Amino acid sequence: MFETRTFTVPATPLKLNLQLPGYGFTNNHNEAYLMAEMIDTQDRVISGYEKDSCMIQGPIDSTQLELRWQKGTSEHLVGSKVRLRFYFRGARVFAVTA
After folding, report:
1. Which of 92, 97, 90 is nearest to 31 (CA)?
2. What pTM, to 2 d.p., does this model score?
3. What is the spatial order of strands in the sheet that 92-97 belongs to?
4. What is the spatial distance between Cα 38 and Cα 86, in angstroms, rounded to a whole number?
5. pLDDT tens digits for 37-89?
6. I need a surface site. Which of 38, 44, 76, 78 has the fewest CB within 10 A?
7. How high is the pLDDT of residue 58?
8. CA neighbours within 13 Å on the CB side: how many for 82?
């Protein structure tokens, strides 16, 4: 697990530079994954942006993978101060961009 620093949600979608499974990892039984959740300034998960709503399984090797939750992208939170918290197994995350 890792978290980003607090940032203001931009008007453009959040994107990942992601390799899943990452180099050197196997994906036996589809065990490689990445989940992301949005955290508010009070350290609470924002409703609709829970990790179970944003689960990515590979194989994926992308520099522009748009982060999506069941609720959609981050467009509902534009201008809000948040952090992203990632949970993963067998993944390589190189960057989070907008």
Report:
1. 90
2. 0.90
3. 60-66, 15-20, 92-97
4. 9
5. 999 999 999 999 999 999 999 899 999 999 999 989 999 999 999 999 999 99
6. 44
7. 82
8. 21
Flag whether pLDDT at 30 surpasses 80.
no
In terms of C-beta distances under 8 Å and separation of at least 24 residues, what long-range contacts does 31-35 make, across chains too? 31/89, 31/90, 32/57, 32/58, 32/89, 32/90, 32/91, 33/57, 33/88, 33/89, 33/90, 33/91, 34/86, 34/87, 34/88, 34/91, 34/93, 35/86, 35/87, 35/88
Q: Is the pLDDT of residue 23 over 90?
A: no
